[in-house]
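Course exercise 7: structure representation. Students receive a sequence record and must write out the corresponding structure in token form. The form below is the worked example handed out in class, using Glycosyl transferase CAP10 domain-containing protein (548 residues). Read each field label carefully; the graders check that inputs and outputs are placed in the correct fields and that the protein name is recorded exactly as given.

STUDENT ID: A-19
EXERCISE PROTEIN: Glycosyl transferase CAP10 domain-containing protein
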Amino acid sequence: MKEVVFPAASQGEQDEEGAPLVTPATEQEITEGGGAPCKDGAAAAPVPARAGRTLSSLGAVLRMRGVGSVMAGLVLLALLLGARRWIDLDASSLLGSKVNIGAGERRRHHRGNTTAPLVPIPFTCGNKTSRQPPKCPGTPAPPPSMTLAVPDDPAASCPDYFRYIHDDLRPWRGAGITREVVERARPHAFFRLVVVDGRAYVETYRRAYQIRDVFTQWGILQLIRRYPGRLPDLDLMFACDDPGQVRAADFPKPSEAPPVFRYCKDGSTLDIVFPDWSFWGWPEVGIRPWTQMLEEVRQENERVRWPERQPYAFWKGNPEGYRIRHKLLRCNVSNGKEWNARIFTQNWHHAIKNGFKDSRIPKQCVYRYKVYVEGNAWSVSEKYIMACDSPVLFITTPFQDILSRGLVAGKHYWPINREHVCKSIKFAVDWGNKHPEQAQLMGEQGSRFVREEMSMDYIYDYMLHLLTEYAKLLRYKPTVPEKAVEICTESIACPAQGLHRECMMDSMERHVVGFNPCTLPPPFTKEEAKEIADREAEVLRKVEKMEG
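STUDENT ANSWER:
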């Protein structure tokens, strides 16, 4: 086997220090024209043991990402060490037997082949002169087609990242969840959501930043419209702030920990990961619902093809208060040193005044490489960055959301060592520019993942499976809290105005779907976890050697 020669960093490279060419912003953390931090949290899982919080090497960082990253490592090994698919070499001796790295590799889409008639869902705001929100109508009965399950059809399997639903709920799998345990989560929660007989009720404890709480509730209401009669009675607490506070170390008996739903987690907390609010839009920063944003980005990708893009790594956002982002600022050209990066801060006062014309996400798809970096925790910008058909230089992070758990390093993104960010970015850009076909393929595969595996079909299916599995653990019959109020599509959308109303109307489910949700795959087995962990160890050694 001939040896692959990778571009190496020159000896005696100067430190990453250098005056950034940008002015720090002070506004709320939002990246890439619409990224924001989330929660951190985590649950024990039968996956390879994660490293501690110290991120002293690329290996340690990748290990913190759990099974998803371990699986990712197998493909990264193929990319960096010589798989035929990437650099014309055979790495079978390194990979050994084939490992299942994701349902997307073997599964056709389970949508679009139904002949069931569409069942429209009524929507009306009634008397437009009334200041009172309209009364919530009844939920339509599910059509007969929805009772025709096809569990034996392998095409109906959900993507592998759905398997983390089992991991998130594992702390309560044995003992179950009592009302007392749920109410123990109240100090962390922004609202309590109860579903009884297909109708939703909310008790608000405090308002979230901007519309995080409202659009999260909106998403659940659309789930109920989409799959009427499918959502069981449930009672949950939802936190919309940063960071997570339910620490695993505080609960030697995990089942006594309060179950708190959040948008992301890390290895030290016990939060339950849920899709973030921006899938239904983020009007405060001019971001449309996810389906519309994907179409806008697709058009921009067609307009500026990857070879025609600027051959640098791009990031734009707010660095204030985040050490890792200040490290990224140093990667601009400074003291005559070219790090192959173009890093900008976002001035949100100016952006709001000019209608976000200079901050539109699609217009940022003009660079060959996009950088993803965490903020206070995970950042909403992740999915928008991934959609540009440009390889994403992913600064490794301990935070997990539903998207990052499905990503495969070396296939969907290039991992960047957070301990020497600028050097790692320069190496990645140099490699990509010298291997344009492989780099372009990585960008396309990352974008294909967010378009297909993160389509709204799957987002709703993830929500349905998560809430259904959670409801199975309740050891009591949910009842409507005394101070809760009923919410429905009409009660939220009809009083809304401006872009808030537009986002809701654009993301509203108008028909009952005529097909079944995908089938939830089983948890990771101990054998899978061991095999993945063994292979990860070899991958990490090779990656660290390459980084030098």
